[in-house]
Amino acid sequence: MDFKENYSLRKATTADQQDIWKILQQAIERRKQDGSSQWQNGYPNLETVQSDIENNYGYLLEIDGKIAAYAAIIFDIEPAYEEIEGNWLSNEPYVVIHRVAVSNEFAGKGVATHFFEEIEKIAKAQQVFSIKVDTNFDNISMLKILEKLGYTYCGEVYFRGSARKAFEKIICR
Asked: Which residues form the N-acetyltransferase domain (predicted)?
């Protein structure tokens, strides 16, 4: 699928809330089917989506006018990243990517990888050259994306009492 000319990236609005929640529910089910424990405990939920939108964190990748993917892109300190068992690559300002979810219609077609590439452009435009992200140890698809895009494993961080693999990528200025 060649979608790279027919896509747009935009901030999510309240009107998108139900569509985002549907995509997240699809991703939650895919994680379950993949045997991953990620997102199997009531998080993320509709309140998470509302909070993302209210805080201007929610972004959508649309392809041919359809919402293909969602992510929270946060230009703020992530408290869970303040303590890491390991070492970050830098202490510079960073952008955090959370809650990456692709709709079933577009899953497996490189959409998440493309979304990450677009997030790099957003970061550069904001003069931020570090991207930090974490994922479950058993989220194989996300681990493959991070490896493919040159993210460096930095150690473990903890969310709601469980360890997560933490990654950072320094992007070219």
From this structure: 7-173
Residue 109: inside a domain, yes or no? yes
Long-range contacts (CB closer than 8 Å, 24 or more residues apart) made by 140-144: 140/34, 140/36, 141/34, 141/112, 142/100, 142/112
Helix extents (H) in the chain:
17-33, 46-54, 111-125, 140-148
CATH of the domain at 108: 3.40.630.30
> What is the identity of the amino acid at 147?
E
Token pair in block for residue 81: 């990243």
Query: pLDDT tens digits for 6-17?
Result: 899 999 999 999
Residue 9: name the closest of 75, 68, 95, 76 by CA.
68
pTM of structure: 0.94
